[in-house]
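Are you able to produce any protein sequence you like plus the matching backbone structure tokens because I've never seen that pairing?
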Amino acid sequence: MIEKSQITQILQNYKNDRYRLMDILLDLHKIQNYADTETISYLAAALKMSRVEIEETISFYHFFSMEPKGKYNIYLTDSITANMKNRKGILETFEHECDTKINSVSSDGTFGLFTTSCIGMNDQEPAAIINDVVFTNLTAYRVRELVKGMRNGLNLEDLMYENYGDGNNADLDVRSMVCNNIRKKSIILKKDYKPYTFVKSGIKKFTPAEVVQEIENSNLRGRGGAGFPTGLKWRFGSQSQGEHRVIICNADEGEPGTFKDRVLLTEYPEMMFEGMVAAAYATGSDIGVLYLRYEYTYLVRFLNRILDSMRKQGYLGKNIGGVEGFNFDIRIQLGAGAYVCGEESALIESMEGKRGEPRDKPPFPVEKGYLGYPTIVNNVETLVTAVKILHFGAKWYSEFGTNDSLGTKLLSISGDCKFPGIYEVEWGTPLTEVMEMCGADDVQAIQVGGPSGMMVSLKDLSHLNSTQLMKWYKPSGMEVAERFIDRRLSYSDLPTGGSIMIFNNQRDLLGEVVMNFMEFFIEESCGSCSTCRNMPYVMKTKLKKILDGHGVKSDIEDLLSWGKTLKASRCGLGQTAGNPILSSIFNFRHLYEKHIQSLTEYDTDFDLEKSVQSYQKFVQKEPVLFHMK
């Protein structure tokens, strides 16, 4: 049981601030791994909150608990890429070796075994987090050795079965077996910029208004998926009135299949933090927060070291870069496992110690965000890109990409390809070229933008070069020329936050892929909107009916109709929760139709005469039940 003195010390560390409840709970879980009723009551009194307020926060997040967990807590990812690489076999091995079932704790209290959504390791699956240590490329043998070592009380770091990963993954403050797998670099990943150049000299060359104007001139759009103009967001933020202004870096990349921000956090943290400083200078902000998904806890010590170094050099704190009155600092806020917190208003709710439920808009965060202050939220890739633009200029940036989609995009590529990893490509790059880069062949489908994006059919891919396309599709050359059209990565064609997942012709797209995506949305819904709370489950049930061979043509139309209902949801999660089914119907309708009983509207297997005969037999046997007065 956690000591009262320990709770008191944690509370003092955060000045009994109820809005730091997330940090308080995270520190408590480090000591005891769950919050018992007595501790919750103590917190409620100290923070002047109700027990219910604290319990609803604990119950919302995946990595918090009100029940005791194990000495070793294993979170095995349930991402589609893990399932494609024998996650089922890995789970069975864990269950056998730990002597417990999934989502339970072993009888001796040694092991807690839990399932979790994507942990950002799609290029090295199956993967698991064990007491905040990431284990990648799991096999049955490696699982047995891991469990044996844990039973013998060995240190988890000593149980790593691979060398430390490349780059900063081998840093003494990281020491992780995670690999970056950077496959292609362009203008952002190219290390042609010395960190902090803008803070040291650029700040004195630009006024805040000129920084905003330069970003506006570049037409940089947010790299989190929505694509809102970054310069416009900074301008709105600078014009909003408040006692403080806040810059938040959104590093809660929970979209399955996305891991490019993980690599930027590992290899380009100085540029990311410098981007936050530039945004603060441009908008007159004095508070900075990096909201980091809990799954990347292993990077916290390393990132805090970078921040400490910046403070010592005068790049954070008071009068940054010699600019009188420019005071700004950054702290790291860990999440606790909730995909919906990638939505900016849900993220702000989480930072304030609450359930990560999206807010109604307006007001927008740039008007009233964290603690009621004007708040500018940008993701990791956006901030890194902004630094390069401020150094090399908006004109330089406009030389890359297309007219409506300037610059480059970092892609997280995984699935059925030879070379999964990070690829920086110019906007406008054809998907066929992307397939060539990563060594994908026999491609059946490509999921662009994660489960909330679009499942693209092969008939949408083409350079109208039949020889080149024979690897992906096998009709005659004439059919290729007639049936294939180009699809390119751009905001006007295929926008993406970065996730590209590839599925070959051996994959069951509906039963294996789409079903996994729908289960993800059901699991991750905050439950606030009735549409998002109910419709994904209803749609999944209808899909299962079709896959079980009981569907009819009207079931497909029902799915399309219900998908429209989801657009009434409050946030992007709910609005796109039906996309796995909707986009697969759009591009793979034939897969649905081959499962249904007939293309008629109703179930033609119903035999009225046979049903009447059954009824008559029952009446003859039990006539009293149907006696009419």
